[in-house]
Amino acid sequence: MKILIVTAEISGVVAVGGIAEFVLGLATALVKRGHEVRVAIPAYAHVRARNDLRLTNDRLVTQLGVGASNVTTVHELDLECPGDGSLRLPVIIIGAHTHFASVRSDADIYQWPNHEPWIAFARSIIDLLQSSYWQPDVIHCQDSHAGLVPVYVKWSRRHDPDGPFSSTSTIVTVHNLLNQGIGAPALVSYAGLGAEWFDAEGFEYYGCANCLKAGLLSADCVSTVSATHAEEICESREFGFGLEGVLGRLKQEGKLTGIVNGIDQDRWQMSGVRYDGPDTLDGITRAKQSLRERLYAEWRWQVTDQPIIAFRSRWDQRKGVGLLPGCMDKILAKARMVMRVWGTPGESSGLRDLWEWFGKLAEERPDRFLCNPPGINSRDGAAAHYTVADFLLMPSMWEPCGLTQMECQRFGTVPIVRRTGGLADTVSEQKIPEFPSPNGFVFSETTAEAAAEAVDRAVEAFYDLRKRQELVQNVLSQQNGWDSRVDEYEALYTRAGGSKCKTDGEGFCP
Fold first, then answer.
1. Same structural domain for residues 454 and 321?
2. pTM of the model
3. Could you tell me which of 221, 220, 213, 176 has the C-alpha nearest to residue 197?
4. 83 confidence band (pLDDT: 50, 70, 90)
5. Does residue 421 contact residue 229 with C-beta atoms inside 8 Å?
6. Which of 172, 202, 219 is the last residue before a domain boundary?
7. Quick one: 306 and 166 in the same domain?
8. Residue 256 or residue 72, greater confidence
9. Segment 248-269, tens digit of pLDDT
10. Which pLDDT tens digit goes with each residue over 192-203?
11. 156-164 contact pairs (CB < 8 A, 24+)
12. For residues 414 and 457, what is the distance between their CA atoms, to the nearest angstrom?
């Protein structure tokens, strides 16, 4: 297949969060399968400044509504596919809005007050493809930032049934429902679409225009990043954030599916440890012991037989940080904890108070609790954090997929998670046929008591040598690499092609 992935970010070029890793991982897996894959991102200023770009179009005109238009250039670069230096992934870099030319760091790519840049980006993709640049079989769009691409494809099919998109199917993958591209109805006019698109074609959302909603209803298929999350987002506003009705409709029509994210297993592994050999467990144990001896000296920790629990997350209530104060006394009575968090204390007083509370706890109990200590205090320190810990606690309020619980297992670290989204799909406290298990500890209630009880079960298993070895062996046996997910995406692409909407003269994609 010819596959175009449209996204705001991709690891190796520009990255803010999990979408960047998702795109690079999936694209690489597809390239390794023999598919012709390209990725399209906006022409951020700091990306345009790279010296490995090649010019492919020196004058692309993007036509929008209300007289808006933009003339931009299109460049490409070849990104090396992780794990196989002989394979290259072409990345298309396209402008179409002044915002992108003002972005000089990864952290700034989403800093714009409305959705106009992303509408222009989507339209520029359509204009580029219509210029006979390259014609994909599938356009795979990530979140609301690429959400209008299916809308424009739908518009093109309607006006030119035998045109360039007659055999192209579209997919939207939802990573984060919090950003839906909601704005004034004038966004529809800015997009160059008629007034009928506001009501009849899916933009209307409580009197506003919702670009993600329109994209979901226009796409041939919709996916999210875990099977459980695909169920959750249809059930209530807690998970669907106002689009639960639309998503439920798509589910009933067979257009919504959930596929668990993969990870780069070559990246997330201990150096010098053979994962396919009989001595894997011994190698992991030695590596953990060696790192602990070094970090304990920096941390002024004494050697004990008590387990170490890791917590690694951005500072966000959705990650369950609010549950922790109510169970820290119980946890620290039986284990030591090393926390790595990033972000800011937050605008809400609750998050600021929590930030101060944990800082004070670290000052009062440095022998039991550390927050952002040397050795793990950068985002690049994840491997060391996973290695030094016996368990990793993820009490998330909701988690579309989660990567941390899969990454840590590559280091023999056992996850303790709340049953939600991808955490429910990748961690089990019971033996199940889907993957080597038990491979962790799971709780359901969003309470400090439930989290503490799960930690109690984990600590009890830690002191039972047989159970502990079984858990560690199972976590090391997990197969969460992208090569184990790509079959599902190939099936999704095939299904999207089979369910592609066709014009019937009056209605379209009812």
1. yes
2. 0.93
3. 213
4. confident
5. yes
6. 219
7. no
8. 256
9. 999 999 999 999 999 999 889 9
10. 999 899 987 789
11. 156/126, 156/130, 157/501, 157/502, 157/503, 157/508, 158/503, 158/508, 161/502, 161/503, 163/130, 164/129, 164/130, 164/132, 164/135
12. 12
245 part of a folded domain = no
Same domain, 12 and 145: yes
Residue 330: inside a domain: yes
**In degrees, to the nearest 5, what angle opens at C-alpha 30 toward C-alphas 265 and 145?**
95
Angle between helices 18-32 and 486-498 (to 10 degrees): 80
Amino acid making up residue 442: V
The answer to whether the beta carbons of residues 202 and 222 sit under 8 Å apart is no
Residue showing tokens 């950068």: 378
What residue numbers bound the domain in which 153 lies?
A: 2-219
Q: In Å, what is the CA distance from 473 to each residue of 168, 292, 311, 397? A: 45, 20, 22, 28
Contact 397, 451 (CB under 8 A): no
Looking at the domain assignment, is residue 239 inside a domain? no
Partners of 221 in beta bridges: 171
Q: For residue 246, what are its two tokens?
A: 């639309």
What's the chain's length in residues? 510
- Cα separation, 465 vs 469, in Å, equals 6
Q: What letter represents residue 327's amino acid?
A: C
* 23 band by pLDDT with thresholds 50, 70 and 90: very high
Please report whether residue 226 resides in a domain: no
The CATH number of the domain where 294 resides is what?
3.40.50.2000
Residue for token pair 């640049």: 133
- Residue finishing a domain among 219, 242, 264: 219
What does the CA dihedral 62, 67, 68, 70 come to, rounded to 10 degrees?
A: 40
pLDDT at position 17 is 85
Do 106 and 215 share a domain, yes or no? yes
Distant-in-sequence, close-in-space partners of 138: CB < 8 Å, separation ≥ 6: 1, 2, 3, 4, 168, 169, 170, 171, 493, 496, 497
**How many structural domains does the chain have?**
2
pLDDT digits (tens, 9 = 90+) for 301-350: 999 999 999 999 989 999 999 999 999 999 999 999 999 998 877 666 68
